[in-house]
Write a structure and sequence with these properties.
With 274 residues, this protein is an alpha/beta fold. It has one domain: Spore Coat Polysaccharide Biosynthesis Protein SpsA, Chain A. Helix content is 36%, strand content 14%. The protein contains 9 helices and 8 strands. It has an 8-stranded mixed beta sheet with strand order 1-4-3-2-5-7-6-8, sandwiched between helices. Helix 6 runs parallel beside helix 8 and helix 8 packs parallel to helix 9. The radius of gyration is 18 Å and the shape is globular.
Amino acid sequence: MKTLSYQTFKPQTQPQNESAVIQMDDVAETFSSQEPLTRPPKTLIIIPAYNEEKNIGAVLEGIQKKSPGLPILVINDGSSDNTEKVVLEHNAEVITLPYNSGYGIALQTGFLYAVKNDFSIVVQMDSDGQHDPADIKNLIETVQKDDCDVVIGSRFLSKDSYKSSLARHAGMLLFGSIASLLCGQKVTDPTSGFQALKGSAIQFVASDNYPPDYPDADFIILMNRCGFKVKEIPVTMHASPVKESMHHGHKTIYYVFKMFLSIFVTLLRKSSKR
């Protein structure tokens, strides 16, 4: 992956309690043990954002209210508006990419940061307000268990009905069915960007294995083939406020083509079991 140059801005915050830190060298042993975790893992929330000055403030406030004390890193993906300024005003850290690099690259930048700074758990979520911060706690608690490495928040397992366009819903059904068939387990929400990862799964995403464009169903299939345990849990998702989806219009055709191609390449490549 091409190395990106960026600036890191750090607000004036109190340092995290050192007793809560789990070093990356100890992660494999910690999460392979059958004993429950006795120390709170070092957790980071990653949010990719592109021209989200109208939404990112409310997202950060919601996280800080529902999960106080958790560090937040926003990847400002070359925004031309005041996204970076709003983030700094809300005392979150931000990495500003020099130009718009895309969703996958922005996410991977955050995971590279997580590996470099020895985070044991990463929660990724979107910047448009769709994801409910109240569900962060459940994602973290679930991913700490021994039966999963990646937890995906599914809008379709929730009791609340989620409405989407007919074309988008058909796409999710199609790629959900493909992922379910190839993974040997039910996948209901292959496009969910609300996820929690731990340990070696974080390092895997930070490597060149990660899909750079749209890490959706192809990512789930890839993780499954490489021996990672993936699990879905119900979460609440709100309708995206005004903003168009990244897969709208002609981008829908491009997304479908790229996703089929990425899944095909994933099936061709030799899976490296961890």
